[in-house]
């Protein structure tokens, strides 16, 4: 700042000493305004998020919004906070129904400047960061997964801290590894994942907690189990067999599973997942004993899911062709989540068990199939 003041003083002197009418152009000194970023943080910096009670409604940005969860979350949040208060974003072109359902913008999480402009121009107060490459897809392209899942996260963390946002970053059962206790898996235990997706999620958990303690960032995180949804296609995750089986049961009556029949994993219907996400974001900060929680609803194997489906679709034929990569990933993950801390701290409670899940999925997909055939 001393250098800038000296430059300004020289400029003024030059202008005052210039002969009148000499035709000289005024001397202009360009001064760049630099705002705070954690990348330039001082040792005594402290930041605080704007709490929900301080505003009428949060102004929400969802990154990676065209994935499995983003569209559903936007629909839920728009019902609660108003259509124009929730902005969906992605690097892909949205389908017509998504584009016309509420605000949508292009957002590349690897473009730091673009992200800052979006947050500032739209006065964002809550940010849900869903941009990520999932487990099996990430293993096929580790460099891209590292860039999106880690570098992109760093951009999000810096911008959230700089602008006092309340930040939600989802984690996953994939954040655990073969040395973690598997049945049940508690909130706090050894985490040594074997996939780039899992490693990046452990990194996200720890970085978020660090930013919370270091900069006061209001960081909140849930470890999702496998999420089952009827209104989106499988996205390359290891648990996606539990979505694909419903599509195939309706369309062809045949399903080939890429995991062993006795592979037990925790699962959740998407409505429970989205509700849990909203509930933890609305929870008063003083009720949160930690910043990253397990949440769970049910735990089953492919064989158990197929048996439940057979009650509704007796003609379904299920075969198994095990994908060794996906199986190795699944074998390193929890079989069941201990989510007692979430249930105690902020009242988490799931609504869907396996029978309700199967009936809901079949009703949804069956109706869609009938409409498609009629069209």
TrEMBL record:
E.C. number: 1.1.1.103
InterPro entries for the chain: Epimerase_deHydtase, NAD(P)_epim/dehydratase
A Pfam family it matches: Epimerase
GO biological process: L-threonine catabolic process
Top-level taxon in the UniProt lineage: Eukaryota
CDD domains according to UniProt: TDH_SDR_e
GO molecular function: L-threonine 3-dehydrogenase activity
Pathway the protein acts in: Amino-acid degradation; L-threonine degradation via oxydo-reductase pathway; glycine from L-threonine: step 1/2
Residue ranges constituting the NAD-dependent epimerase/dehydratase domain according to the UniProt record: 60-295
Catalytic activity reported: L-threonine + NAD(+) = (2S)-2-amino-3-oxobutanoate + NADH + H(+)
Function according to Swiss-Prot or TrEMBL: Catalyzes the NAD(+)-dependent oxidation of L-threonine to 2-amino-3-ketobutyrate, mediating L-threonine catabolism.
Entry's family note: Belongs to the NAD(P)-dependent epimerase/dehydratase family.
Name of this protein: L-threonine 3-dehydrogenase, mitochondrial
Organism per entry: Solea senegalensis
């Amino acid at each position: 700042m001393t250098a800038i003041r000296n430059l300004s003083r020289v400029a003024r002197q030059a202008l005052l000493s210039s002969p009148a009418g000499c035709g000289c152009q005024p001397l202009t000194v360009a001064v760049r305004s630099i705002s705070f970023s954690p990348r330039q943080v001082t040792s005594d910096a402290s930041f605080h998020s704007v709490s929900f009670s301080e505003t009428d409604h949060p102004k929400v940005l969802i990154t990676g919004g065209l994935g499995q969860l983003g569209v559903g979350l936007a629909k839920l949040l728009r019902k609660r906070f108003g259509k124009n208060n929730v902005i969906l974003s992605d690097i892909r072109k949205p389908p017509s129904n998504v584009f016309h359902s509420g605000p949508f913008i292009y957002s590349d999480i690897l473009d730091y400047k673009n992200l800052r402009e979006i947050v500032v121009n739209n006065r964002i107060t809550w940010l849900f960061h869903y941009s990520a490459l999932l487990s099996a897809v990430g293993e096929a392209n580790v460099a891209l997964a590292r860039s999106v899942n880690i570098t992109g996260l760093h951009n999000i963390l810096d911008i959230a801290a700089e602008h006092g946002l309340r930040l939600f970053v989802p984690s996953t059962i994939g954040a655990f590894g073969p040395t973690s206790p598997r049945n049940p898996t508690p909130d706090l235990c050894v985490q040594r994942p074997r996939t780039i997706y899992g490693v990046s999620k452990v990194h996200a958990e720890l970085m978020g907690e660090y930013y919370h303690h270091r900069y006061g960032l209001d960081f909140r995180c849930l470890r999702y189990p496998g999420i089952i949804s009827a209104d989106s296609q499988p996205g390359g995750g290891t648990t996606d067999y539990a979505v694909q089986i419903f599509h195939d049961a309706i369309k062809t009556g045949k399903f080939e599973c890429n995991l062993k029949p006795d592979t037990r994993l925790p699962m959740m219907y998407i409505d429970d997942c989205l509700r849990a996400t909203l509930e933890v974001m609305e929870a008063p900060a003083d009720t949160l004993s930690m910043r990253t929680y397990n949440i769970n609803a049910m735990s089953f194997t492919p064989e158990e899911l197929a048996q439940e489906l057979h009650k509704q679709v007796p003609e379904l034929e299920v075969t198994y062709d095990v994908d060794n990569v996906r199986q190795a990933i699944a074998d390193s993950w929890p079989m069941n989540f201990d989510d007692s801390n979430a249930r105690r701290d902020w009242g988490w409670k799931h609504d869907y068990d396996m029978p309700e899940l199967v009936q809901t999925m079949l009703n949804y997909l069956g109706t869609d199939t009938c409409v498609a055939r009629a069209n």
